[in-house]
Design goal:
Blueprint: H1 13-21, H2 25-43, H3 50-70
Helix pairs in contact: 2-3
């Protein structure tokens, strides 16, 4: 008997909107800020952009403080940052 891999079931848009409506707006704003700061951190390569990296890390820390108060699983860690040696 050949086992078929389970097929993924797409989540309807209405269900995704309902799930997103349960999250407070300031948490969504912090999550967007963290994702944006991680993107800016990834763009800041080389020694000329040291100050930009520091600003991005400060923004990530600020967003993590809000996200950790809501759910510690939402924080951005070093594994999420491109170019960090683990």
């Amino acid at each position: 008997m050949i086992a078929r891999p389970p097929s993924t079931v797409p989540v309807p848009d209405a269900v995704a909107l309902l799930a997103g409506a349960q999250i407070p707006p300031h948490i969504l704003d912090a999550e967007i800020a963290a994702v944006d700061a991680v993107h800016r951190f990834g763009l800041s390569r080389g020694p000329r952009y040291e100050e930009a990296r520091q600003v991005a890390l400060a923004d990530i820390a600020r967003a993590n403080k809000i996200l950790a108060a809501h759910n510690p699983g939402l924080i951005v860690g070093s594994a999420d940052l491109p170019g960090i040696n683990r």
